[in-house]
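Please, structure for the following, as tokens.
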Amino acid sequence: MKLSFVLIILISFPIIFSVTFDAAMANLKILESYISQYKTEKSSTLSLNQLILGFIRQGKYDDTTWTLVGGNVPKDLLTYIQDQDVKHNTKSLECRSYGDILLPTNKKFDFVHLFAVMNGMDFLPSSSTLVGWGGDLAQLAQDLKNNFKDTTDLDKLIVEAKKFLGIKGQFGEGDLNADIDAPLILRKKKLGTTFAATLQNYYANGEYLAKIRNFVSLTFPEVKSKEELREAVFNKYGNDAFIKILECKYGLRAGGSILKCYSPKDLLPQFVNHQKAAVYAFADYLSDNYY
């Protein structure tokens, strides 16, 4: 089965919303230097990417499911970073608790969510970019189920899904932008460069403004129309084994218990269009900014 979703969230630190982009990058640069120092001192066999991405991700996304998706970092790394912050009067640990970061264009991205998606993609390079957006679409389908349980008209559900996507519910703007940015940033990062420098170039230099075109070209290179994109997104999403598990947990598939959801059954008939509406809303969002 393909491990390609990002979802279950456990908050272990207060979320910090007011940090500026420059302050976040400054702290990230410091954190990366501490983790690099840790890797050298401890002779860690984990890659520097895994240590950095996994450490930041575990600040908010840390349970057994996430261990499968992104792996674990050594338990003493947290204490090491805390000690370094005290020793040098720095605040690098705050990187694990950042929420949405506001950009000069008034767009925002969820900092830790971005690193969680990159962690999953780096840890499981064979997985698709469903890491992130796939799990968030399952949440969007759940929102539709909870708010429009008795509605089965697909067109109406698509309209409602577009009111939620990147605006309200569980798939907000910060998550949406992070899901699209993550594969592009991870692909852009070169060996020997820091994530701080890569993010600085990507966001401060305005490269992120072409994110949707680049994301579609990277993720669905064979697609040539809005209709084809709907179908491509739907097929990639609907055929993923772990997405089916999530949908079962969210009450969209037959299962009956959490354990039974690890062998998920068929999508419940009354929610077929809720799933499709969530997927089509995302596909149309990409299309509207691509074609």
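The first strand starts at residue 100 and ends at 102. Residues 248 and 290 are 32 Å apart (CA to CA).
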